[in-house]
Automatic annotation (TrEMBL):
The organism of origin for this protein: Paraglaciecola agarilytica NO2
EC number: 3.2.1.40
Protein name, per record: alpha-L-rhamnosidase
Domain Alpha-L-rhamnosidase C-terminal: 817-884
EC top class named in words: hydrolase
UniProt xrefs under PANTHER family: ALPHA-RHAMNOSIDASE (EUROFUNG) (PTHR33307), ALPHA-RHAMNOSIDASE (EUROFUNG)-RELATED (PTHR33307:SF6)
InterPro entries, A to Z: 6-hairpin_glycosidase_sf (IPR008928), 6hp_glycosidase-like_sf (IPR012341), Alpha_rhamnosid (IPR016007), Bac_rhamnosid6H (IPR035396), Bac_rhamnosid_C (IPR035398), Bac_rhamnosid_N (IPR013737), Ig-like_fold (IPR013783), Rhamnosid_concanavalin (IPR008902)
Residue ranges annotated for the Alpha-L-rhamnosidase six-hairpin glycosidase domain, each copy included: 472-814
UniProt domain Alpha-L-rhamnosidase concanavalin-like: residue ranges: 363-462
Organism domain of life: Bacteria
Length: 925
């Protein structure tokens, strides 16, 4: 059979190559699209950045604008000014191909200021586009001096009265009536809390779907503020602003440290600024004229322990102007301190994103039922429930059933139960306000026993940080698709204002080691750059003057040491974020922090061998050690610490080079060479056998992935790694540190076939093992749970951890083959790893320039590959191993070696199996 090679290239690509054009004038009838500010904001309200960064994309390939040769940005304080005479900034024509992270260089932007902006571009032929549609930026309050409001609290929470934990755990309610007698032009509410808040104008929830705002930052250094447009909520004449607050992360405990629970007094800060049509302004600020009470229906609220609601305390109409608050007390006030920065929120808050309904209902006994939602998730339920007067309803949560029984022991000390006490019989409607839960199952007890439970009684409100999930991978294998879905759910569940390790038990912390593993996969899967950038700022704030980085961010005193492989987030995250986005500002902001962490590493090293404490290869399967020590795996701790010492120095050196810090780059390069030599000499003998600790997969993975083995010895180290895999029946033996390195290291060794074998393993330890045992998310342990035996008796059994979701990175960089050849994907490498285990794969990634798409499918001995290269990019296609391109009738040049260089466009390739390679062990079978 003769195989015909068909390569379809858009007419426009051919025009570009030949220098031809079909345009008849000097202005394109298209314009830039997808305009964004900073890390992905669109028309932001309450923006945080004094010098915004602008990004856009070129129009579709069909427009003919394949590359950008220049751009022009204009900003103005009005649409008229923007059109005729931009009064904030006119960049003029800037010769540049940059479409991302263009920094504002105009007149200073001030707090509250609203500006209008637009951009136009010139294409590869020098032809100018139309102006983009106009976008807006409205600044938040950028400095503490913008606040005239004071922190307020209920009088019962005055710290001078030494309030009890019970008092501090009881939510506070606030009211401030006011009158408006003129027509309003606009109104903005600036608001935050030491704790978490809900806020209302004339009974309407102005924060809508927002959950547990303002979120979690290092409260003693920075508290984020939010801005809401409340123009339409205000009435002529009588109005009221009202709010409720709870302790949230601000005063809640960490882990089992009950003695720290509710020891701080939550506070509210609110500033309503009204601009009238006549130009006059009025400020309604939180101050001593507000009133407060703690006699509201929410009697207790805790992130870990749930919420207690008592209908006896309901205050009908308390959010409306007509309510009589005569029994309420004057608030106490506290000044805004200059030492704690009040700054606009840097990323979108947690929100209610979707709703799930139960897939089954089981009545376990009279008045008790278990609802199964079929999906492990995070959020709170909404209940419409028949109740009996005076009989308390309890709502408990579980991730899985243990041998058929409702099970909460893996939540440890987190009580994770909501209570509702009804004042009368009938149907109640209830949704918890100031807590969140990780769960799949909900047990409801105490409802009216005369009623038969049904699925309409409850729904699940899924909550997570408001980031877009791309859902950009699919294949011909159902379990692989299920794994991708599970990883997505793990991402959603743990991106809860900060990157949590788990969302259900008494932990829920921003562990740095988990972040190192998952930062890049999450960027392939979601629009999460702003989320990570904001958390990295918190890391820099928590870092001490000697460079020490806590194990989790934000830091609350619990574990007071740091760990290699964890604290290295200070260097790994900035570099990974830069690689994926091309935003050099993340390096500029982080460079001092990166250098400080390297200095801390140096202080823990002798002879360039690090002795920093470490959690080790956390939860490695089949450890030789027993007890708690088994959790840290078998890889020598100093080997791990020295490897990460080298890695952090390497990332910092690369950053110094990017920032043109020549002296630092040279010094760091010398340091890196010394650490590398010490690593090789200390931990391996002349035959590359491990000389300290056990010979583990992770020991060789660190050596290879971090380039700590001389080039001439890499093949031998690869063979040692593969031999260890073979000795384990081709199962992984890696924990939190080794697993992220497996796929890429094996691919670099030419053994993508082994990556597929690892992914497609059905038995423990493997990704499919969890799926075979009912997983709907990724787990903390490889064997946290089994359908037959229930939860693993060893403990540490979170069923919603994202760390092992790191394999999704290889879905993009391996299976699809998409990788950045330069930071920000301006140049793209596409090297799909083909296997007999899959017939079809399709996926994409929205790079800063536009969406790159790859799909491949196999028919007998042929392979069809479809690729879309976005505008303003170039790509190199690496011809898949085991195949060759017959270019006899090709419309493009012959391959250079094993690759094809491509310009923007739509391409379709047909390949035929290369019999001279097919039998090779490197063919992905």
């Amino acid at each position: 059979m003769k195989f015909i090679i068909f390569i379809s290239i858009t007419l426009l690509v051919v025009q570009l190559i030949s220098g031809c054009s079909t345009k008849k004038n000097d202005t394109l009838n298209v314009h830039p699209v997808k305009l964004k500010v900073g890390e992905g904001f669109v028309n932001p309200l309450g923006y945080y950045e004094k010098e915004p960064r602008f990004s856009w994309k070129l129009p579709s390939i069909d427009s003919g604008s394949l590359t950008q040769s220049a751009y022009q940005i204009q900003l103005a304080t009005s649409l008229k000014q923007l059109r005729f005479s931009p009064d904030k900034w006119d960049s003029g024509k800037i010769v540049s191909s940059s479409t991302s992270w263009v920094t504002y260089k105009g007149h200073p932007l001030r707090s509250r200021e609203k500006v209008f902006w637009r951009v136009r571009v010139w294409d590869q032929l020098g032809e100018m586009s139309e102006w983009s549609p106009t976008q807006t930026i409205e600044m938040g309050l950028l400095q503490n001096s913008d606040w005239v409001a004071k922190w307020i609290g209920a009088a019962t929470t005055d710290t001078h009265l030494a309030p009890s934990q019970e008092v501090l755990a009881t939510p506070q309610y606030f009211r401030k009536p006011f009158t408006i007698s003129s027509e309003i032009q606009k109104a903005r509410l600036y608001v935050t809390a030491k704790g978490v808040f809900k806020v209302f104008i004339n009974g309407e929830d102005v924060s809508k779907a927002d959950v547990l705002t303002p979120g979690w930052t290092p409260y003693q250094q920075r508290i984020e503020t939010l801005t809401y447009d409340v123009t339409r909520q205000l009435n002529l004449y009588e109005n009221v602003i009202s709010s409720s607050i709870a302790g949230g992360w601000y005063s809640g405990r960490v882990a089992g440290l009950l003695d720290t629970d509710h020891k701080q007094s939550p506070r509210l800060l609110a500033q309503l600024e009204i601009t009238y049509v006549d130009g006059s302004k009025e400020v309604i600020a939180s101050d001593g004229t507000w009133k407060a009470t703690q006699e509201g229906p929410i009697r207790f609220a805790s992130n870990y322990d749930g919420e207690r609601y008592d209908q006896n305390y309901e205050m009908p109409g308390w959010k409306t102007p007509s309510y009589n608050d005569g029994s309420w007390s004057k608030v106490i006030t506290e000044d805004v301190l200059q030492s704690i920065h009040l700054r606009p929120k840097r990323h979108l808050p947690v929100r209610e994103i979707e709703t799930l309904n139960p897939v089954s209902v089981t009545q376990t006994k009279p008045g008790t039922a278990v609802f199964d939602f079929g999906q492990n998730m995070v959020g709170v339920p909404s209940l419409s429930l028949p109740v009996t007067k005076g009989k308390q309803v309890a709502i408990r949560y579980a991730e899985a059933l243990h041998k058929g029984e409702f099970y909460t022991e893996n939540y440890r000390s987190a009580h994770s139960t909501d209570y509702y006490l009804p004042v009368k019989s009938g149907v109640i409607n209830y949704k918890p306000t100031f807590t969140f839960h990780g769960y799949r199952y909900v047990e409801v007890s105490g409802f009216d026993e005369t009623k038969i439970p049904n699925a309409n009684w409850i729904s699940a409100n899924v909550q997570h940080s408001d980031i877009e999930l791309y859902k950009n991978f699919t294949s011909s294998n159902a379990k692989l698709n299920k794994l991708f879905e599970n990883i997505n759910w793990g991402l959603k569940s743990n991106f809860f204002d900060i990157p949590l390790d788990c969302p259900q038990r008494d932990e829920r912390l921003g562990w740095t080691g988990d972040a190192n593993a998952f930062v890049t996969p999450s960027l392939y899967m979601s629009d999460s750059y702003g989320f990570w950038s904001a958390w990295l700022k918190s890391l820099r704030e928590e870092q001490t003057v000697d460079g020490f980085v806590p194990l989790y961010i934000p830091y609350v005193k619990w574990i007071d040491w740091t760990s290699s492989g964890w604290g290295d987030a200070a260097t790994i995250l900035p570099w990974e974020l830069y690689t994926m986005t091309g935003d050099v500002k993340i390096l500029e902001d982080s460079y001092a922090s990166m250098k400080a962490w390297v200095e801390y590493h140096k202080s823990e090293a002798k002879g360039y061998v690090s002795h920093m404490k470490t959690f080790g290869d956390w939860l490695q399967p089949y450890p030789e050690a027993e007890g708690k020590g088994a959790n840290r795996g078998d890889t020598d701790f100093s080997l791990i610490s020295t490897a990460f010492f080298a890695r952090s120095v390497e990332m910092t050196a690369k950053t110094a080079k990017e920032l043109n810090k020549v002296r630092d780059y040279k010094a760091l390069s010398v340091l890196h060479a010394k650490i590398t030599k010490a690593f090789r000499d200390t931990f391996f003998d002349s035959g590359l056998n491990v000389t300290k600790g056990k010979s583990t997969q992770t020991a060789y993975l660190l050596s290879l992935a971090y380039n700590l083995i001389p080039e001439n010895e890499r093949p031998q180290a690869q063979e040692k790694l593969i031999a260890l895999l073979e000795a384990s029946d081709m199962h992984l033996r890696t924990g939190f540190l080794g697993t992220p390195l497996l796929a890429e290291t094996l691919q670099n060794a030419g053994r993508s076939d082994l990556v597929y074998e690892l992914i497609f393993k059905e038995t423990y330890p493997s990704w499919f093992y969890s799926i075979n045992n009912g997983a709907t998310t990724t787990w903390e342990r490889w064997n946290s749970y089994s359908s037959e035996d229930g939860f693993n008796p060893q403990g540490m059994n979170s069923l919603n951890h994202y760390a092992y979701g790191t394999i999704s990175k290889w879905f993009y960089e391996g299976i699809l083959g998409i990788k950045p050849a330069k930071p920000g994907f301006k140049e793209i490498t596409i090297a799909p790893q083909i296997t007999t285990k899959l017939d079809f794969v399709e996926g994409s990634y929205p790079t800063p320039q536009g969406e790159v798409k790859v799909s491949w499918s196999k028919e007998k001995s042929s392979l069809k590959l479809k690729v879309v290269i976005p505008n303003n990019s170039t790509a190199k296609i690496i011809i898949p191993v085991g195949y060759k391109l017959d270019d006899a009738k090709s419309a493009v040049s012959k391959p250079i070696s094993n690759s094809l260089n491509l310009l923007p466009g739509n391409y379709q390739f047909h390949f035929i199996a290369d019999s001279s390679i097919k039998g090779s062990k490197h063919f992905a079978s």
